[in-house]
Design a protein that fits this description.
about 220 residues; five-stranded antiparallel sheet; mainly beta; 2 helices
């Protein structure tokens, strides 16, 4: 994930406004509104935080109904021996510097799993923080089979990992958002920056936090 995306995750991920919902068994699918992705207003205070400017002009997010690559339309969470999250997009036509960040909440802690695609098409996936190894106190136990895949034909991004990597909890709850950035060189040697994002579990992005999925019990 790019530094810009990391900054944006740090700004939005810590809080959420939606209250926890009742737990559902094993698998949950949540539809999201079509056309609700937002452009990041680089002149706003949020834009200033992300890009190191003194921007304070206007709202942090602007309507961007033509943005399809970060426009989440459906998310399916399966909680079994492996946790699998599949995110459906309107059209993954632009995937350079594209990423999804998933916050996983359990009864005992919080984890993040991120899948990203670089400008050159390289894909990355990571789960953090790792669960501590009980046989070696204080030492992390690596999760060796975290997987992520961009399917440009199906317009999906899928992430999965063994439930043991997050302590095999009885239930999980997710926050999820997609983001992409675009850097366009201009003739004078400078660049134009642009960014778009969408929250999978609410109809509009908010600088105050992300929505949450229902709780999903382990099947």
């Amino acid at each position: 994930m790019s530094r810009l995306a990391t900054r944006l995750v740090a700004v939005l991920a810590p809080v959420a406004l939606l209250l926890p919902a009742a737990a559902h068994a094993e698998q949950v699918t949540v539809d999201d509104a079509v056309g609700d992705a937002k452009a990041i207003n680089l002149a706003s205070e949020l834009g200033g935080i992300l890009f190191g400017t003194s921007g304070d002009d206007g709202p942090p997010f602007l309507d961007a109904p033509a943005e399809t690559a970060t426009d989440v339309t459906r998310t399916t969470i399966r909680h079994a021996r492996r946790v699998t999250v599949t995110v459906q997009f309107r059209d993954l036509v632009e995937t350079a510097e594209h990423s999804i960040d998933i916050g996983i909440r359990t009864p005992d802690g919080k984890f993040n799993v991120t899948a990203a695609r670089s400008t050159d098409g390289t894909e990355h996936v990571a789960l953090f923080p790792p669960v501590l190894d009980e046989t070696a106190p204080g030492r992390p136990r690596p999760c060796r089979s975290v997987r992520g895949h961009y399917d440009l034909v199906a317009e999906t991004v899928t992430v999965s990992f063994p439930a043991v990597c997050i302590g095999e909890p009885p239930w999980i709850q997710a926050q999820l958002w997609a983001v992409r950035f675009q850097v366009t060189p201009v003739g004078d040697g400078s660049v134009n920056l642009a960014g778009w994002a969408d929250d999978a579990f609410r109809s509009s992005l908010s600088e105050k936090g992300l929505g949450r999925s229902p709780k999903v019990r382990r099947g």
